[in-house]
Amino acid sequence: MLKNRKKFSAAAAGFVLTSVLAAGAAVLPLSVAEAAYNGESDTDATVLDYIENRRRTARENALNEDQKKLLTDAYRMKENLRQPLDPTKNVPVAVEGDDLFYDENTGDFVVQGNVVLTSLDKRRFITEHADGNLVRQDVDIPDKAYMMQLTDEQARIVLNGYRTQYNWGKETGSMEDADGKIDHQYVKAKRIEFYPDKVVLFEASATKCSAKNPDYKMTAKKIEYYPGVQTISYGVSYWLGSIPVYSVAKQVSKEGDKGPRLPKASYDNDNGFGLQDRYYYPLADRVQAYWDIFLSQRSKVKSHAGITYDTKAFGSFALRTGFFDDTDNKWIHKSPTLEWNYSGRIGKSPFSYGLYYEHGAWTQDNKHSIHTKYKATLGIDAIKLGTWRVYPSLNYSITDESYDHSRVSGMGYDVTAVKEYDDRWATYLGYHFSKSNSQNSVFDYDLDSYSEKATAGFSYSFSPKDRVVVGWAFDAETNRLMDTDYYWYHNLHCAELVVRYRGKRQQFKVSAQFAPW
Questions:
Q1: Which has the closest alpha carbon to 150: 230, 223, 70?
Q2: Is 235 left (phi over 0), alpha (psi -120 to 50) or beta?
Q3: How many CA atoms lie within 13 A of 368 on its CB side?
Q4: What one-character DSSP code corresponds to residue 169?
Q5: For 13, phi and psi rounded to 5 degrees?
Q6: Spatial CB neighbours of 483, under 8 Å, sequence gap ≥ 6
Q7: Distance (Å, rounded) from C-alpha 146 to C-alpha 143?
Q8: Is 74's pLDDT higher than 50?
Q9: What is the distance between the alpha carbons of residues 393 and 39, in angstroms, rounded to a whole number?
């Protein structure tokens, strides 16, 4: 392709210079929404939450046309290589432009006009002028540049910025006065630095809202983003529109989050308007403190806090204190309570087990008790019966209360079956038995008023942004209809609207969940 001379000039538009500069596979990196949606229901409608999470993940991972073209071009580059890829050598890079000058002795190049720089590991820079060195694997773009990155196991990047420098071999670089998208966050920054394991933003803002003037955002003096691991932000402020909400000196996301959390706004019959949020504070390896706060029009301030410790080998421990509510808006105060969870799989079998213990002081409606609960669960992987997936499990639980020296104990079982007809329709059936209910227990927190429950429901997606769910719960002993849940999920571009109506109780709950969820 290149003639044997020190400097080569090509005026033909679309000229391609390929220098075998480390190998990259042409595989799209997978990514998921950073916080799974968990609904509230007494009718088993939550078994279909995976559909909502799947739809959100699909929206999160949607590629624009430029990204699709990059994947296609990187794949074609790999197919057209003359020699097999050598992982000990540098990644192949294609340089395109109207005018290109290249020095074969030094590796220096200058390219101008409709410049496109594409590497096999799915990085691309588009600009009007660039110079660099193919031996050192450097590129320098003094003016405006459009950058894309779909490299495996690294942040997905789409950015516009100025004064860009990048080194393909070291996978390091920088861009100034940048704006665009990094994974699921729309960002603006005075300066962005790129590293193999992280992206660092200075004097930056981040939001999940793509509007020019976002409904909400987080600003920070510095953001260190480790893809799939954590985000560390310094000098943080949260904004709703142009109104500052609160500030913190430093914030560390929990492991796996891809960006800052934002409050959830809601309205319901019992609490009126409310805001809920949770904050995490890492204390040590696998140890973190958290604070969950709920501010509402009627119940005022109710919060709980705790410390969690995941031992991996011996399960997880949690010490919690404060107010907790269930799906029926029943509140209880724990001061404090200790929890232990342990789960595992039985060898290579399809069976899994869980152990749970809780001991602490509970208070509800002037009733005070030392509450102790033991529970063991045995489950099995989904069983396929035709087009249905069936999830059965058994459990045994014991609940002791010092308030009246009572004990409720016995076997319980749960069976849920799910069927998806197509991308729009899904349905479920369930049957549950528990010895504990609100009639034979000191507290009615997180309990039904009956022991045998049959459930049924369906989900229907009638547009890419809208989905409805209807669920029913029956007292299986009396065949009485006990609950009906109606849900409407609507994507509001920069937030998710979830409307829940409980037909039997005539209760409304509307929540606006700013992304990230």
A1: 70
A2: left
A3: 4
A4: T
A5: -65, 145
A6: 42, 43, 471, 472, 473, 502, 503, 504, 505
A7: 10
A8: yes
A9: 21
